[in-house]
Amino acid sequence: MTFVSSGYDPEKPMENRITDIGPKKYDEFYPPVIAKNKGKWLYHEILEPGVLVHVSETGDEVYTVRVGGARLMSVSLIREICDIADKHCDGYVRWTTRNNIEFMIDSKDKVKPLIDDLESRKFDGGSYKFPVGGTGAGITNIVHTQGWLHCHTPATDASGPVKATMDVLFEDFKDMRMPSQLRVSLACCLNMCGAVHCSDIAMLGYHRKPPMVDHEYLDKMCEIPLAIAACPTAAIKPKKVEVGGKTLNSVEVNNSRCMYCGNCYTMCPCLPLMDKEGDGVVLMVGGKVSNSRTAPKFSKVAVAFLPNTAPRWPETTDAIKKIVEVYASDARKYERLGEWAERIGWERFFEKCELEFTHHLIDDFRDPAYYTWRQTTNFKF
Ligand code: SF4
Ligand code: SF4
């Protein structure tokens, strides 16, 4: 940020301010009907899956058509989205935090032509480019992290299992038969830049083996003090090793202290911990952000480990589909998955979903187990 040479006036902090850093102010991009009715909206309704109407006290209406998008999109797909926005919405379009694309229009008669256009666009393989849905009591779009494509510590892929899962759940993206919203997410390691701690169903990539140490190159590529300092459990210490008749500076990992977080690999590429058998997927359930009815909840581990069976992850998608179907048939209207599990009891949740309860699912003494699993004499597993 820079200020013009005339000087900065604290009484008028915005005057003469010039900046080219960061995005422009969001309200420059409001569709006119939204700018005009700011602060005047009375209510909104979901007219059908993927279609919302917001009604203003001025009588104005905004119709929103939501379509599922992907986290990683090609330039050609984004150009096509812009063309659709130009054709139907005067060039206005927005993305949601769950990677949906929302097209907003100001009258009801524009809704059907827009939906027909969106649903008619297909990929060469026949699948929808712009599936309408993801609202209300259905499966909302799955959010995920970078996966094998971009990040350095993933224990599973992101786009791959999410695509496989959404293929299994797709009917419920376009429908609203669930008791309530069902949010699915994926984070490909426990550093968790996805929202898996607060989603109804979450896939979490999990390492089960400590890092390997590449002694030969470690001192050449890494700052040893940084690698040591990166470890949250103090499992790494310096060590001199003999390699090819030379004494080299390196590190030693105390495997019994390691919690497989991968922080050291972030600091030092000579401490990789990816492993074909060691890496896989943990399923977590019952989290939510909403304040409705009950307080926000953290999700809990329901399946401690599933293998990385690329490209379709059938063990993971089968388990998720089972949980979704049992929830859909057993929960009360408006009940989120975690609320349902707490009402019927976690023991019954495991029975109904045919999931095995193992000792891996009980928090250890260092975690806040009192806030997650029940620790009373009623704990019946
Ligand atoms: Fe990287 Fe972990 Fe985020 Fe995945 S969840 S993108 S591995 S930091
Ligand atoms: Fe420490 Fe995590 Fe590396 Fe294990 S993986 S040695 S806990 S930083």
**Mean pLDDT reading:** 91
Q: Report the count of strand segments.
A: 13
Global morphology: globular
Report the order of strands and helices.
EEHEEEHEEHHEEHHEEHEEHHH
Strand fraction equals: 15-25%
H/I helix tally: 10
Largest sheet descriptor: 5 strands, antiparallel
Low-confidence residue ranges: none
Counting helices, strands and paired strands, the structural category is alpha+beta
Distance between the termini: 59 Å
- Strand order, main sheet: write it out: 3-4-5-7-6
Rg estimate, integer Å:
25 Å
Question: In terms of topology, how is this protein built?
Answer:
Layout: E1 2-3, E2 17-18, H1 32-36, E3 41-48, E4 51-56, E5 61-68, H2 75-88, E6 94-95, E7 100-105, H3 111-120, H4 159-173, E8 184-187, E9 201-206, H5 215-221, H6 224-229, E10 236-243, E11 246-253, H7 263-267, E12 280-285, E13 300-307, H8 314-330, H9 337-344, H10 346-352
Parallel strand pairs: 8-9
Antiparallel strand pairs: 1-2, 3-4, 4-5, 5-7, 6-7, 9-12, 10-11, 12-13
Helix pairs in contact: 4-8, 9-10
For this entry, give a set of tags:
381 residues, alpha+beta, binds iron/sulfur cluster, 13 strands, 4-stranded mixed beta sheet, 5-stranded antiparallel beta sheet
Describe what this molecule looks like in 3D:
The protein has 381 residues and is an alpha+beta fold. Helices cover 25% and strands 19% of the residues. 33% of the residues are buried. The longest helix is centred in the last third of the chain and has 17 residues, at 314-330. A hairpin with a 4-residue loop joins strand 4 (51-56) and strand 5. The termini are far apart. The model has no long low-confidence stretch (mean pLDDT 91). The chain contains ten helices and 13 strands. Helix 4 (159-173) runs parallel beside helix 8 and helix 9 (337-344) packs across helix 10. A five-stranded antiparallel sheet has the order 3-4-5-7-6, covered by helices on one side. One iron/sulfur cluster binds at residues 210-211, 230-231, 233, 235-236, 253, 258-264, 273.
